[in-house]
Amino acid sequence: MTQSRPEPKVIVIPAKEESPQDQEKKKNLRVAAYCRVSTKKDEQLNSYENQKAYYTEKIMANPDWTMADIFADEGITGTSACKRKDFLRMIRQCRQGKIDMILAKSVSRFARNTVDTLNYTRELRGMGIPVIFEEQNINSIYPESEFLITIHGAFAQSESEGISSRVKWGKHQAMRTGKANIQYKTLLGYEKNPDGEMVVNAEQAETVRRIYEMYLSGQTLRSIKEALESGGFKNSAGTMEWTTSNLRTILSDEKYCGDVLLQKTFIQDCISKKVIKNTGQLPMYLIQNNHPAIVSREIYQAVQAEKTRRSASASPSKRTSSTGRSCYASKFALSERLVCGECGTLYRRCTWKRNGKARVVWRCVSRLDYGTKYCHQSPTMDEEPLQQAIMAAINSVMDSKGTICSQITEAAVEETGILPDSTMTLGEINRRLEELETEFNILLQQPDSAAKNAVRFGSIANEMASLKEQREKIAARLRKDQTVQLHVHSMEAALDGMSHHMQRWDEEMIRQLVHTVKVISADHIKVFLYDGTEIDQIVGYGSCTID
Length: 547
Known about the structure:
This protein has helices at residues 20-26, 42-61, 85-95, 107-110, 114-126, 145-176, 202-216, 221-231, 244-252, 297-311, 365-370, 383-395, 401-415, 426-444, 449-452, 454-496, 507-513; strands at 29-37, 65-74, 101-104, 131-133, 138-139, 190-192, 198-200, 260-262, 265-267, 275-277, 285-287, 338-340, 347-354, 357-364, 379-382, 514-521, 524-529, 534-538, 545-546. It is extended and about 115 Å long. It is an alpha+beta fold. Strand 1, helix 2 and strand 2 form a beta-alpha-beta unit. The termini are far apart.
């Protein structure tokens, strides 16, 4: 037998009347206001000050409100909250329970990023803190307000994207017409004169030239850094603290030869503001002879070629190959020159410590990294007797410095000789390419051109490809010529400035004169000079061991 269910009964629970304490709390709402302008233009700053004054007066005039604070970001974009310090400070105070309500002029003043707007208004709603957007008459405490906030937030973000697009277009047009925006603050050697022109700072320019000269003479970035700091040379910030990163930037900057390359980087979008390196995604604009050069284009190109040469060798310490070839990154000249006679791998400088005494030695990198897998009998060389032996080898030929100089010049001439298969100059090649391009365009305009002129089109394309290949070979040779000639000049200068014999070890002199030192055995080395001279040398003293 089924029991009958009782009839539903509705019981009304009356609303809770506000206590005097609740009423008093409402009368003492801690109210904050948020103001923001996106630029530092005069009219915007006036608006910014007006916003602060307006909300200060509004909050102070309400007897039920207590001033919590006025939060204001000046000249800051609203697309990213992370860059707005006062906005983030306001949010922190809300989380700490110091604010009960926030006033804002509009959704776009609060944020121009839809995601940020929703995330922060939702978080504040969860804490019971409403945001009052006055222009739109929206109170974020009500869930139904979220739709309106989303709509207005999307409009604000779209407006920012439109502004960003117009700014980008304006910058691209300026770049197309050759207008460069130079950042002088971090650019050593240049400054802007009262007419807005880019001019050379004579004192700083000498520092730049010195950096280029030292690099071409064979010095590493670390040794250049040490030389500049010990010499009291100032960087772009006016301090004497240099970094290898800063030096690398100076040696790579085309502005020092008078050119400007625009759009090396670009901003991914107006929301993330992420800066992306331009590797071909957007066009770049090279303005040649834009301003006075500090170094010649020949020297600049020689430095780029030398950078490429140095970076082409892998670091042996990274164990990238069985024999680990050279890395041009040491303050010691022998780090790039001392090679194992057995396996051909470079030697590395090591410090051994026993019983509190330090002993500096040189060891085969392959032997160090791989044991006897690739190299079985390479000797460990004590530094001092090794250096003495190398100096003795150099001194043995110093009586014929004139002969060495002539041999250096002859070697350079031989190395920089004309291309055997080249019959045209660069100018002739460029003129012929222009003729072919003109002919191509004329043929292209004829009716049924593709069918009638297919053979000629193919012939033109093949000839242009061949000419461009020749042009690149000649250009590469010219770059090599410049590098070789600069090296020759530096070696000749080193020989001229050298006394009859080397009395002490000189890293710079070794870099200029010695091409390779091959370790044959513990007491036998071969020294190869840049002019081609080969010297067999006995390591006369010191204890060299075979391990």
